[in-house]
Design brief:
The complex is a heterodimer of chains A (159) and B (959).
Chain A: H1 10-21, H2 28-39, H3 46-54, H4 58-67, E1 79-84, H5 87-91, H6 94-105, E2 111-112, E3 118-123, E4 135-137, E5 140-142, H7 147-158
Parallel strand pairs in A: 1-3
Antiparallel strand pairs in A: 1-4, 2-3, 4-5
Helix pairs in contact in A: 1-2, 1-3, 3-4, 6-7
Chain B: E1 19-24, E2 27-32, H1 37-43, E3 69-70, E4 89-91, H2 95-110, H3 126-133, E5 152-153, E6 156-157, E7 171-173, H4 183-192, E8 197-200, E9 207-210, H5 226-230, E10 236-238, H6 239-244, E11 249-254, E12 263-269, E13 272-278, H7 291-295, E14 310-311, E15 319-321, H8 324-342, E16 347-351, H9 357-371, E17 376-378, H10 385-394, E18 412-416, H11 420-423, H12 425-436, E19 440-444, E20 453-454, E21 457-458, E22 461-463, H13 470-483, H14 489-495, H15 498-509, H16 515-522, H17 526-538, E23 542-546, H18 548-551, H19 556-569, E24 579-582, H20 589-594, E25 601-602, E26 606-607, H21 611-621, H22 633-642, E27 647-651, H23 655-658, H24 662-670, E28 674-679, E29 691-694, E30 703-706, E31 711-715, H25 727-737, H26 747-757, H27 766-772, E32 774-776, E33 820-825, E34 850-853, H28 855-860, E35 868-873, E36 877-884, E37 892-896, E38 924-930, H29 936-948, E39 951-952
Parallel strand pairs in B: 1-4, 15-39, 16-17, 16-27, 18-19, 18-23, 19-22, 23-24, 27-28, 28-29, 33-37, 34-36
Antiparallel strand pairs in B: 1-2, 3-4, 5-6, 7-10, 8-9, 11-12, 12-13, 14-15, 14-29, 20-21, 25-26, 30-31, 31-32, 33-38, 34-37, 35-36, 35-38
Helix pairs in contact in B: 8-25, 9-25, 9-26, 10-19, 13-17, 13-19, 16-17, 22-24
The chains are: A alpha+beta (159), B alpha/beta (959).
Chain lengths: 159, 959
């Protein structure tokens, strides 16, 4: 179950973030990162505010947000587990790792467990090719995933 | 006849002067430096396959079809993004390239529907053409995998498939046919400058998205059509093409909406208009268009168009259809009777700024030679007559000084009382393009218009002055320039009268004209005026563009002079990128003025009292002409109310809706004995007419329009007039009925007469226009190629004249009863009184006039957004719905005047410009209060209009 909480004064909080960062060169990506940090995702309602303040069109901001997979359109679970699916990891069995993790969590990629604990996502290269197959849990990387490591990782994510 | 050919060179032309020679497929070709290899090839007649490139937008390099091989270089660079270099040896067709291209096309086609035979783009599809060009015979990938094409697959919905978006009334977006070349997105950004489109997602998920995954209508799209034009497939297609099919021939003609005067190709199937496509070689629009010219031509076949002449004895009678002969005979006998009974001066006429130069010339000729007086006026009376007067006094010509290309060289642009993105959209887009390249903008306007701030452009200064204080602000700008020594002394000494300058400089330098001193009545921050003045004087090429927000004031002429003063003082006259540029409202308002539509001027702005000029015409026309200036429109109406003016011939102008103080206009018309209206529709003025002559549209006749840059553009007949005759023929028949011996067989003969009598048109003829495309007057022995820029080496009048511009507050003031100032304007999708655009699908964007009011003023009055409000002035009252906005400052309200039911001109007063009588539409003191419905006047008016539009069925000829 994804928990959708009404976000209070989304405009005001967006505006505060935009005002803080709009002096940067190329401020859109940092603003979107900050918005995601603030709300846990990029709420659609933020986009017109960002567009107006940066003097961009709504379309342009929408184009950027949808281009990057890391900007979420919806809130994620409490933990985010990313499994690398790029070439080196594939050659070291990442497909099997993914199948196992999916079975353990009972969800597919881009889904969140019913208790809202874990969101599972693919990622295309964590830069850990030498320790493939690799994964990332809430920003922390894990390498050389074998069955035990996978079980530990899922257990940790479940907490 | 066939389609007018247009070559797509793939990338825009380079402006470099240095030339480069290279070899492409064994052929030597020399092109300007910076040209792409793709364009150079096309110029050599070698077409490199391409999909994402088109010459209306910059190269993008995404389709990978235009790859070439260059001797001595690695790989296969894209020819669109690779510039030419001296001595390159390029090969556009090698076996390696052929394989790559075929492979790319296979991928495209594997995710594209194969319904070519029933596709709307069949016959006009670049994807189809390229599949042919690369020799695609097979798609090895098949069509079964992931795709955007099929709505359902294996019994399940295909999540990638998106339904067709038909929200825009004029074109459809079919995502299943999209190849994601980004041409539409780039056209929206680079050409139109609206940025309404984007590519959402990435990789195989990429789709074109209007706004934030919205439909076209609810997105930021302004429906200019640039994306539709750019689309190489059927993804974006005109609904008219879907309905009718591909055109088989096309004719270049000129748009009949605003003063930009865009050139279009009318693409036809037989006599049916399939679509209007902006013509790339059009020098005013350079291949761009707006929603009106591109799409809003449906009025020409609207069911309310009147096709038969009609007569009635009294305006309370229903109309009776008659034959043309009966109508002409009736008008001729009535006009002659009135002149016999009330005197020669008792009749007059109004020429139309919507009609051609030739037609306008004929109407004024009919009045001067046939009626024997000078009672001729035109709608420029109510728009740009102060421009004519002000620029005539200071520079010596009654017209703008530049061509539209000039804006590409401007560094600082001042916009005063104009709203180019709505009123002159194609110029607005060209201006925005220049602003995105770095030019600075100063906007002087009570309202925060879109040009003040919209995606990627922002004015350096917006001076939100109180309506009616233009002169004070312009003089304060001059004050800063003079007192801070920012004027161009060299220019002034060479080109202007130095002693007049000194007098003017002493005047503006007075402390009472300082920004600080005028703040209390203009409401503009002094530091902003100072900043704007410094920017304009020192920022490089400074150009001033202005509109009716300047002229339609009691001091309209004074403001025009203040603008001219400012341009002269800063040396911004006589070269590209500078100048004083009135944005004329109507397609041919410049032309109608040129053609002698004013009561005091013969064609070419020569006063009627000038014996030599009169002699030219008297000799040509074989009659004696009056040397006394005739009546202006407001004088005609006054005289009608007084009982001395009894008959009027109005061609294509709706004075009842467009002229100020509606009740006075109605009273004037009601007092006349023969009101003849020639128009497409039973317009508001026709409610008071006795004779109605059905007019023709710009698609149904030959002629010329002269746009805001003095450009004489050809209008070409593409279909038979539905009413039977071009407007020029109707005027001629009327003249013949009145006993004049006119025998024009084609409008070119009229143009020959204009050229023979008017020095600034001396070399203009249809043959010459066909050869040149278009010319800007003066076009004579001295300037045979026309005059894109005027006053290059000296002013037409000799020395430029500085004139003191004392600010005199209008008599129209706010007070306890009327505490708010009303100003009026236009909106993008509608055109003036809306007679045409209201009869097209453009109404989806603007179905009624709204009153813009600031939240503060609304709250004080208990008004909510969308509420009915009553708008009251000293002249009258009307009701409309409120729109709460911060575009207007507190104390100012704004509305448009596109809909007759609103009756915005019931409110406006009869104050007018001191020099030219141009009405003060832009300032009316008003009160706004909550209301629950139409005012008594609106109800009464509606009833009267309904009654007066009744038509008795035409009687069949006796058996």
């Amino acid at each position: 179950m994804n928990l959708h909480m009404p976000v209070p004064d989304i405009d005001a909080r967006t505006l505060a973030i935009v005002n803080e960062l709009k002096g940067l060169e190329g401020p859109l990506l940092p603003i979107l990162h900050e918005i995601q940090a603030e709300f846990g995702y990029v709420p659609e309602d933020c986009l017109p505010v960002i567009a107006r303040e940066l003097n961009l069109s709504r379309a342009e901001v929408h184009g950027v947000v949808t281009f990057y997979h890391d900007y979420r359109r919806h809130p994620a679970g409490r933990h985010v587990l990313k499994l690398c699916q790029a070439e080196a990891c594939q050659s070291m069995g990442s497909d099997a790792v993914a199948a196992k993790v999916k079975a353990l969590l009972g969800i597919d990629f881009h889904e969140t467990t019913e208790d809202g604990a874990v969101t599972l996502e693919p990622v295309y290269c964590l830069g850990l090719c030498s320790t493939a197959p690799a994964a990332m849990l809430d920003g922390e990387v894990h390498g050389r995933l074998d069955d035990d490591a996978i079980a530990d990782l899922v257990a940790e994510a479940r907490r | 006849m066939s389609l007018v050919p247009e070559i797509d060179y793939g990338t825009p032309a380079s402006r470099a002067e240095k030339m480069v020679t290279l070899t492409i497929d064994g052929r030597d070709i020399t092109v300007p430096e910076g040209t792409s290899i793709m364009r150079a090839s096309m110029e050599a007649g070698i077409q490199v396959p391409k999909l994402c490139a088109t010459d209306m937008v910059d190269a993008f390099g995404s389709c990978r079809l235009c790859l070439v091989e260059i001797e001595g270089r690695n790989g296969t660079p894209a020819s669109c993004t690779t510039p030419v270099a001296p001595g390159l040896k390029v090969h556009t067709q090698t076996s390696r390239l052929k394989d790559i291209r075929k492979g790319v096309m296979e991928l495209y086609i594997s995710d594209h529907p194969l319904d070519c035979l029933t596709c709307a783009a069949n016959g006009d599809c670049e994807l189809q053409d390229m599949a042919g060009a690369v020799g695609l015979r097979d798609v090895r990938y098949g069509y079964e995998g992931d795709n955007h094409v099929k709505a359902r697959e294996n019994g399940e919905a295909n999540a990638r498939w998106m339904p067709k978006d038909e929200s825009n009334p004029y074109f459809t977006y079919d995502p299943s046919k999209c190849i994601v070349c980004s041409r539409c997105v780039r056209a929206c950004e680079e050409v139109q400058g609206t940025f309404a489109l984007t590519i959402e997602g990435r990789g195989f998920d990429s789709r074109v998205s209007p706004g934030m995954h919205e439909n076209f209508l609810s997105s930021e799209c302004v429906s200019c059509g640039a994306c539709v034009q750019a689309c190489p497939t059927a993804t974006l297609t005109e609904k008219s093409v879907i309905e009718i099919g591909q055109p088989e021939h096309s004719v270049v003609t000129t748009c009949a909406y605003c003063g930009v005067g865009c050139s279009f190709k009318a693409e036809m199937r037989g006599e049916e208009l399939v679509r209007m496509v902006p013509w790339k070689d059009g020098k005013a629009n350079r291949g761009h268009s707006c929603v009106k010219g591109r799409f809003a031509y449906g009025y020409s076949t609207h069911k309310e168009r009147i096709l038969n002449p009609m007569i009635r004895e009294k305006v309370s009678d229903p109309w009776r259809e008659v034959t043309w002969e009966e109508a002409y005979a009736h008008v001729a006998s009535e006009f002659r009777r009135i002149q016999y009974q009330y005197g020669r001066e008792a009749i007059g006429g109004i020429t139309s700024s919507r009609c051609t130069n030739e037609e306008t010339f004929l109407v004024q000729k009919l009045i001067r030679a046939g009626f024997g007086n000078n009672n001729v006026d035109t709608c420029a009376r109510v728009c740009h007559s102060p421009t004519g007067y002000g620029l005539g006094q200071t520079f010596g010509t009654s017209a703008g000084t530049q061509d539209f290309d000039s804006v590409e060289h401007s560094d600082v642009v001042v916009i005063i009382g104009a709203n180019p993105t709505d009123g002159h959209p194609v110029f607005g887009s060209r201006l925005k393009k220049r602003l995105r390249q770095g030019a600075k903008l100063i906007v002087i306007d009570p309202r925060r218009t879109d040009i003040v701030r919209s995606p990627h452009i922002e004015a350096a200064y917006h001076l939100p002055l109180k309506p009616g204080t233009n002169v004070a602000v312009m003089t304060a700008l001059a004050h800063v320039i003079v007192t801070e020594g920012l004027f161009d002394e060299k220019f002034i000494r060479e080109r202007c009268d130095w002693s007049e300058f000194e007098d003017w400089a002493a005047f503006v330098a007075d402390e009472s004209h300082s920004p600080e001193a005028i703040e209390k009545y203009t409401g503009v921050k002094p530091e902003d005026i100072r900043g704007a003045a410094r920017l304009f004087a020192t920022g490089g090429n400074g150009a001033i563009y202005y509109g009716l927000g300047v002229t339609e004031h009691s001091q309209g002429s004074t403001t025009v002079m203040a603008i001219a003063n400012l341009a002269m003082a800063t040396g911004n006259i006589g070269r590209p990128g500078v100048g004083v540029n009135p944005l004329r409202g109507q397609n041919n308002v410049q032309g109608s003025c040129d053609m002698g539509s004013f009561p005091h001027e013969l064609p070419g702005y020569r006063h009627v009292s000038d014996d030599a000029t009169r002699e030219i015409f008297e000799k040509m026309w074989g009659v004696k002409l009056s040397d006394e200036p005739g009546l202006r429109i407001p004088n005609m109406l006054d005289a009608a109310v007084d009982g001395s003016f009894k008959g009027i011939y109005i061609q294509g102008e709706d004075i009842l809706q467009s002229d100020p103080d509606t009740k006075h206009v109605a009273a004037g018309l009601a007092a006349m004995e023969c009101v003849v209206v020639q128009d497409l529709f039973l317009n508001e003025t026709a409610n008071y007419a006795h004779v109605f002559l059905p007019g023709s549209t710009f698609l149904e006749k030959d002629g010329t329009f002269t746009n805001a840059e003095r450009r004489i553009n050809r209008v070409r007949k593409v279909m038979t007039p539905r009413n039977g005759y071009g407007d020029w023929e109707i005027t001629q028949k009327l003249a013949q009925a009145m006993g004049l011996d006119w025998n024009y067989t084609h409008p070119f003969e009229i143009m020959d007469e204009i050229a023979a009598t008017t020095p600034s048109f001396a070399l203009v003829s249809y043959d010459y226009l066909d050869k040149m495309g278009s010319v800007q007057w003066p076009c004579n022995e001295k300037t045979p190629l026309g005059s894109p820029i005027m006053h290059i080496d000296g002013f037409v009048r000799g020395k430029g004249k500085f004139i003191r511009t004392e600010y005199v507050a209008t008599h129209e003031r706010t007070g306890p009863r009327f505490p708010l100032l009303l100003t009026t304007g236009r909106i993008l999708s509608q055109y003036n009184v809306g007679a045409q655009t209201r009869r097209t699908d453009n109404v989806v964007w603007h179905e009624e006039d709204r009153l813009e009011i600031h939240a503060h003023d609304a709250e004080n009055r208990g008004i909510h957004d969308g509420d009915w409000v009553k708008l009251t002035s000293r002249s009258g009252d009307t009701t409309l719905r409120a729109l709460i906005t911060d575009r207007v400052a507190p104390g100012v309200v704004y509305t448009t005047f596109h809909h007759p039911t609103t009756q915005a001109n019931v409110i406006t007063t009869d104050f007018s410009d001191w020099a030219t009588n141009c009405p003060e539409y832009k300032v009316t003191a008003v009160q706004v209060s909550p209301s629950n419905g139409p005012s008594d006047w609106q109800v009464e008016y509606d009833e009267q209009a309904r009654q007066s539009r009744r038509i008795v069925a035409k009687l069949e000829a006796a058996e």
